[in-house]
Amino acid sequence: MRLQKYLAHAGVASRRASEQIVADGRVTVDGEVVHDPATDVGPGDDVRVDGRSVTPVSDTVVYALNKPAGVVSTAKDTHRRETVVELVPADGRRLYPVGRLDAETTGLILLTDDGELADLLTHPRYEVQKVYIAEVAGGPVGHDTVDALRSGVQLDDGPTLPAGVERMNERMLRITLREGRKRQVRRMCEAVGHPVVSLRRVKLGPLDVGSLRPGQWRLLEASEIEALRAAPVRTGADRD
Ligand code: URA
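That is the input. Now the predicted structure with uracil docked in place:
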């Protein structure tokens, strides 16, 4: 990234003012005074203004989106349905969704151009928590059903890991998963005789969907991205 843009992104001054600051010889890169505002700098460079270190900026972005129903969470859809990527301003970046939600599922999904972060949040090894609110059919959900969902149910691709399950009322469940198999919540509920009527993801790792309404998005702040990076704490090997 050009030095002038780097300084502006780091909040030192506007781009034009940053250009002047560089021209005045007030900026060093890795200990050398530079006079060219177009000098290429990156996160690994030690950039200083008047001897004071400028916090390196991340060149990647993370959007939180409340996915509406009917929108697919792939980057491109072969059936030309609307995709989550089309709902946020890409600004020339190649964004892709972090994990998947079914077309009919609503709620929190992240979009980023940071491949490493996407891997941290989706790789099964890291067991990042995802919280869903499921409205189910099949009559009042009994406590034995809740216990069965908690301890793990048999699906056609194997048993599920222990899950957090709270009964919010007779037909609403709050389900916390540490895995992310295809249509997992729907298949789990179906397996215990309570097909899902509607499904919403409200939390991913430490991040809550908050007050975002369906279709709304916001850019995450650096502290929120750091908290997401810290989310993958357990590995399959650690599990007891
Ligand atoms: N489980 C599901 O069944 N669907 C989703 O979209 C996410 C989790």
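Residues 101-102, 105, 132, 183-186, 199 surround uracil (CB under 6 Å).
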